[in-house]
């Protein structure tokens, strides 16, 4: 239920179309996901997000698969099912096995539990935290 | 601002005290965090959470450090500062470097952004997602 | 996937039907959105929400368009896509241009980022905040 | 309860110190908030966030005060009290009156209500939304 | 870290002071919580919230204690520790026992888990839900 | 939009199939909801969640209907519409009347409001809370 129409290649402004083409080149696919086509109404924002995503998700001290796991976790808590879906797919493309996926879900579920217990119990910071 | 008092070793019921001692043994520390001392009012819940945490956070298809990163991510989105603090400390004990920490934060921040953009744009699932 | 059926004009209790008619009159439309038709199972709550919405969203120190932008922002963070959609439409009816919409999204995205960074870093209140 | 120490001017790396000085110059104040001092552990991220904040919050189709109101709304829903405080202060510096502040809070509260009612009722998208 | 000062009885406008006095009378206590003193900057909002709270939390098809349990649950998920604290206290005044409190926390924790699992798994509505 | 396929009885591993059969027996229905069929990819997690749900939701100091109300409240705030739907149905099976449902929604909505007001006002803990 879009609040904006998804822009086709032809409807996108040149600056946005350039980003679509870069996505195709970098991801080695002809597909440009709906997210980018919706964001294309603001070509400057589209370009900024695309650039930042490449920087942030590149191999670094953390490997790309680990970064996708974190992305899925955040998207799950925020309830963004589109994002959960697209980043789970990305994680699979980067090596996520069913066994890893099960463990990811178990950790997310565990954290959701203890986050709520801490808040409901009003647990105060341990002295050694403040050091 | 606890909704329950933190139980000392002496105040805890025997079943809860046994969990405290197991935490000390398994974590090789004399410290039992405030979280466990608050949860100790319900010894069955305390035992269940402690057992499950050990299972979920053990080395598996995902390594323990990766699991802590996911835990910090979920805790951040849920706004649980106690949990963020304790799991960041745990991550450091399992090998988190400042460089990794910066990348973790950058991924969390990126995901928060795109999760919101997807929701605000009302992006619908791509056809290829449904396959 | 409603948890209650949407009530038609005929199915709604008289008190609820009166609210439907007032919505039509005030909004100068024949449409009564699904939200109101779902809420109509509790005519007192329907009447209370409708009255309060009119008070809160009326022109005041903040203009109606600004109020809709705030509404979209809250709805985005809460992940309510129905609400995002209906309030984005309302914002457009009150003067939202595509340029404004892009800026609204950019601010929401920025805030999501820095909110998470603050929590993950455990930033403590500055002294000058407490004054 | 920081997960990282706040960096003083002397402790910050040159790239980070340069951002501190730019904040001072642009905001015409000697104060560099704790947020920036915590983020300074990752000078590249600090620079990126500072640059983006200036772009996003600048006068545009939406004025700076309106942008701060949106920022406060997002921060409220995310439960980031540090952010609520600092952006409410920024809003006041940009012209927020007590009357406007009351209206902002009333809209946020209203949206929180209806967001939850929509979700609890499972309200489905109106046909006219899909057009 | 208030964004507004807490108003004393003397500082509050007459309309707000009247609400303070009504709170004292209805709750049979001399204490007026900080929440009301902060809200008092907007006497109309204060009056509206106080009136609605009394209606919503009164005995009805659900008893007052059950209503406080729901209030604590919502406040926990929203991470509002002030609210968790004040409504847990209210629940205790209405009959909450330690055993009930433990069960409340266990249900909240369970729901947090399964909510996240559903989102991460992208579980689609069962056919029989749509009936 | 599942991130995993829903497993039929035949596709599920024996340990998962045993859980399906136990669900049928305990709930006296032939239906195994999609949630369990998605979770079945991790038979150990499926078994653990099923076991815990039965313990947590059993009659205790709180009755089963009250527990479902709490579950619906948490699911609403987390925006999990699947969970809201399935637990509202469970609540109805345990005695939820339309009148109770309306009151549940009114309490959730009230709490969402005041949670946000507290955060936006930065209300600090009352002295008597700390006692």
Describe the protein in words.
The structure is a homohexamer of 131-residue chains. Chain A is mainly alpha-helical and 131 residues long. Chain A has two domains: 1-58, Up-down Bundle (AhpD-like), CATH 1.20.1290.10; 60-131, AhpD-like, CATH 1.20.1290. The first copy, chain A, has seven helices and no strands. Chain A has helices spanning 14-27, 34-39, 43-57, 64-77, 81-93, 98-121, 127-130. The first copy, chain A, is elongated, with a radius of gyration of 19 Å. The N and C termini of chain A lie far apart (49 Å). Chains in contact: A-B, A-C, A-D, A-E, A-F, B-C, B-D, B-E, B-F, C-D, C-E, C-F, D-E, D-F, E-F. Chain B binds chain F through residues 1, 48, 52, 125, 129-130, and chain F through 1, 48, 52, 125, 129-130. Chains A, B, C, D, E, F: It holds the Pfam family CMD. Chains A, B, C, D, E, F: It comes from Rubellimicrobium rubrum. Chains A, B, C, D, E, F: GO terms for molecular function: peroxiredoxin activity.
Describe, in short, the structure shown:
The structure is a homohexamer of 131-residue chains. By secondary structure, the first copy, chain A, is mostly helical.
Provide the gyration radius of chain A in Å. 19 Å
Structural class of chain A: mainly alpha
**Average pLDDT score of chain A:** 96
Percent of residues in beta strands of chain A: under 5%
**Tell me, what is the CATH class of the largest domain in chain A?**
Mainly Alpha
- The number of distinct helices of chain A, counting runs of at least 4 residues, comes to 7
| Quaternary | homohexamer
**Which percent range fits the helix content of chain A?**
55-70%
> What is the CATH homologous superfamily assignment of the largest domain in chain A?
AhpD-like
How many beta strands in the DSSP annotation of chain A?
A: 0
Query: Which spans of chain A of ≥5 residues are poorly predicted at pLDDT below 50?
Result: none
